[in-house]
Prior knowledge:
Shape: globular
Number of helices: 3
Distance between the termini: 32 Å
Helix content: 25-40%
Radius of gyration: 16 Å
Number of strands: 6
Largest sheet: 6 strands, antiparallel
Structural class: alpha+beta
Strand order of the largest sheet: 1-2-3-5-4-6
Order of helices and strands: EHHEEHEEE
Strand content: 15-25%
Amino acid sequence: MYPAAPRDHAAEPPTSRSHSLGTCLRLPGHSERTPGEARAYVGLTLADWGVCEAVRADLQLIVSELATNAVTYTHSSEITVEITLTDDEAAVSVSDHGPHRRLHAQDAAPDAEHGRGLLIVEALATRWEQSRADRGGTTVRALITLPGRKPPAATPANKDVEDAPRGHPS
Length: 170
């Protein structure tokens, strides 16, 4: 059902890799199944790459929230989910092809059924950012520093990128 996740063919164990891995998946922009498919693909890929279960679970929840937002609030016919892994971080990004929009985490009313997605992303991610997608629309990227790694120093964000540092329990 899902494309096979790329495998890390390096001779070294995952904790001492010296390169980055990446993959992407295009999904329908208006399907109720898209967030679940994105979540499953992230879980399978990160497990294949040897990422610990705590980071996998957090990134699966993050991608589910981001994909839900893209499906619910854009008129994009397709969304793209990207997964990257470096020596220090694992990341997911979701791009839509609707109009570019600025996203902000907001507090939701206690009885609200929606509106907490970006708060969840902020709580779980080491940092997150948004930018214009390559083909128009919006890309939201969330990164988690891998356990036992020191978070990188904050880099200045350009005017189109919002970078929200957050702590992540190791």
